[in-house]
């Protein structure tokens, strides 16, 4: 896919502003667009998925699962929503937040793969997870997400 060079110089704050303006809804209850862009990106599911949902304790549960899996020699990737302070908090590989540069590279790949498909903020964030975790984790995958977002857990 051809990349629009104007996006290559975006920093993470610019990307977050950009994705907030791309769709008139903050959430749309459909998986079709995510599946289409995942397909265009060649993103596939790796390892296994654990979904942590509920009202309280998701972050603690994810941290404990991640620690146990890493201690057992597995690679992990986590995706949580929403973030508290920085977008980077959403996506971790082996307990380490993805860097601004890693996330921006994922946004560039998504932008070049979406082929005019309009995406919500949440769909962009979910696709970054698919891109980074799919390429950064080969064994195990822990996915922690907000309860209302369950249908978007995997591509």
List keywords for this structure.
single chain; 155 residues; mainly alpha; three-stranded antiparallel β-sheet; two-stranded parallel sheet; disordered C terminus
Gist of the model:
The chain is mainly alpha-helical and 155 residues long.
Characterize the structure shown:
- With 155 residues, the protein is mainly alpha-helical.
- It has a single domain, classed as Mur-like, catalytic domain (UDP-N-acetylmuramoyl-L-alanine:D-glutamate ligase).
- 43% of the residues lie in helices and 10% in strands.
- It has six helices and five strands, in the order H-H-H-E-H-E-E-E-H-H-E.
- Helix 3 packs parallel to helix 6 and helix 5 packs across helix 6.
- The protein starts with a helix and ends in an 11-residue tail after the last strand.
Compute the separation of the termini in Å.
19 Å
Radius of gyration using CA atoms only: 15 Å
Strand content: 5-15%
Overall pLDDT level: 75
Q: Could you tell me the number of beta strands?
A: 5
The major sheet is characterized as:
3 strands, antiparallel
Give the overall shape, derived from the CA principal axes: globular
Give the strand order of the largest sheet, numbering strands 1, 2, ... along the chain.
2-3-4
Number of domains: 1
Helix content: 40-55%
What is the number of helices? 6
Oligomer designation = single chain
Give the arrangement of secondary structure elements.
Blueprint: H1 5-8, H2 12-20, H3 32-41, E1 49-52, H4 58-71, E2 77-79, E3 91-93, E4 96-97, H5 100-113, H6 121-136, E5 141-144
Parallel strand pairs: 1-5
Antiparallel strand pairs: 2-3, 3-4
């Amino acid at each position: 896919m051809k990349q629009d060079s104007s996006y290559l110089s975006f920093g993470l704050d610019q990307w977050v502003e950009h994705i907030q303006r791309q769709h008139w809804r903050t959430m749309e209850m459909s998986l079709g667009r995510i599946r289409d862009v995942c397909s265009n990106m060649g993103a596939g599911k790796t390892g296994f998925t654990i979904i942590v949902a509920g009202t309280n304790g998701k972050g603690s549960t994810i941290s404990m699962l991640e620690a146990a899996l890493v201690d057992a020699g597995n690679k992990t990737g986590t995706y949580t929503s929403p973030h508290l302070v920085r977008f980077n908090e959403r996506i971790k590989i082996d307990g380490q937040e993805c860097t601004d540069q890693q996330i921006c590279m994922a946004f560039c790949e998504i932008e070049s793969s979406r082929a005019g498909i309009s995406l919500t903020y949440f769909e962009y964030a979910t696709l970054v997870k698919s891109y980074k975790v799919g390429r950064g984790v080969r064994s195990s995958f822990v996915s922690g997400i907000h309860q209302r977002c369950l249908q978007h857990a995997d591509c």
